[in-house]
């Protein structure tokens, strides 16, 4: 019975795909900075766009560019078969769709909102029960990057649905398909965001220490850029070692790293800057050394998490 249900959903959505492909139109729900950038990119590529936001006035500037403003969610949903969501999280999707869930039949929901992989899977199942299909998207770009081919969005969900809509989605960014699991794109997205925010906060901490010593952010910038330029090579070096469990300290070791981070903490303290961020890094290294890994590589810290 379940396989028959899924087949029926796919048939319904396939019919919708032909309609959207011929009309070259989409609906975008959520008009924050990212949502507005998405609408503008579609309009720039010649697509018809229907928009809806709880605060309807947010659509006014987009209407001047050619977007059609829906006065209700129902109107927005019935206008097109391809629905793009740009919301704070997936909980917002339920709040918007539950009152009109019977109108979701045959719709393709491309959810570009952020959440956890498991919540994404639950949403995909919920939509499937209402005869709609979800494509999960993780946008690896800020609003100014939307509409540029060098920007990337990761997608997961039914392969056929992705193939049917790839050309339309690439009006926004390059589209990379990660697999059938609806949570997979979100997992890859959150992994990259983990690296992004950790790096950005450490950058701000370094700038704070610099400013306390009379160095401006602009003066520091080329040196930060220099250290960041070494990261791809380091990651390429460590990735296979992490996968193989090879953590020999032939290049560096934890005792060296521990001393280095201690100096960062001390430098921050001397500058009167909060040390909680580098101290957290120091704690991870201390725990690694306490487990007898002082002579092992930095990569051995993978076992601390």
TrEMBL record:
GO terms for molecular function: DNA binding; NADP binding; nucleosome binding; oxidoreductase activity. Keywords: Oxidoreductase. SUPFAM superfamilies: NAD(P)-binding Rossmann-fold domains. GO terms for biological process: transcription elongation-coupled chromatin remodeling. The keyword Oxidoreductase applies. The keyword Oxidoreductase applies. Residues 26-174 form the 6-phosphogluconate dehydrogenase NADP-binding domain. Pfam families: NAD_binding_2, RedAm-like_C. Residues 181-305 form the NADPH-dependent reductive aminase-like C-terminal domain. GO terms for cellular component: chromatin. It comes from the Bacteria. PANTHER family: CYTOKINE-LIKE NUCLEAR FACTOR N-PAC, OXIDOREDUCTASE GLYR1-RELATED. Belongs to the HIBADH-related family. This is 6-phosphogluconate dehydrogenase. The lineage of its organism: Bacteria, Bacillati, Bacillota, Bacilli, Bacillales.
């Amino acid at each position: 019975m379940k396989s028959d249900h899924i087949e029926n959903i796919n048939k319904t959505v396939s019919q919708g795909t032909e309609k959207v492909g011929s009309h070259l139109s989409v609906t975008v729900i959520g008009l924050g900075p990212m949502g507005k950038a998405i609408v503008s990119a579609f309009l720039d590529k010649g697509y018809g766009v229907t928009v809806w936001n709880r605060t309807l006035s947010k659509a006014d500037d987009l209407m001047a560019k050619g977007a059609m403003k829906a006065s209700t969610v129902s109107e927005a949903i019935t206008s097109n078969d391809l629905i793009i969501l740009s919301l704070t999280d997936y909980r917002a999707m339920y709040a918007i769709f539950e009152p009109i869930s019977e109108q979701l039949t045959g719709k393709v929901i491309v959810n570009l909102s952020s959440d956890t992989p498991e919540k994404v899977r639950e949403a995909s199942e919920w939509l499937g029960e209402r005869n709609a299909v979800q494509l999960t998207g993780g946008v690896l770009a800020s609003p100014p990057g939307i509409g540029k081919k060098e920007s990337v969005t990761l997608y997961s969900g039914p392969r056929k649905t992705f193939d049917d809509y790839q050309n339309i989605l690439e009006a926004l960014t390059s589209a990379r398909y990660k697999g059938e699991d609806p949570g997979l794109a979100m997992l890859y997205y959150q992994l990259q965001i983990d690296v992004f925010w950790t790096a950005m906060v450490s950058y701000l901490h370094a700038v704070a220490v610099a400013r306390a010593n009379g160095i401006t952010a602009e003066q520091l910038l080329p040196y930060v850029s220099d250290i960041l330029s070494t990261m791809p090579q380091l990651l390429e070096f460590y990735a296979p070692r992490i996968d193989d469990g090879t953590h020999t300290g032939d290049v560096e070791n934890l005792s060296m790293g521990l001393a280095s981070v201690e100096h960062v903490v001390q430098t921050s303290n001397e500058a009167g800057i909060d040390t909680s961020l580098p101290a957290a890094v120091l704690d991870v290294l201390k725990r690694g050394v306490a487990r007898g890994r002082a002579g092992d590589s930095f990569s051995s810290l993978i076992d601390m998490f």
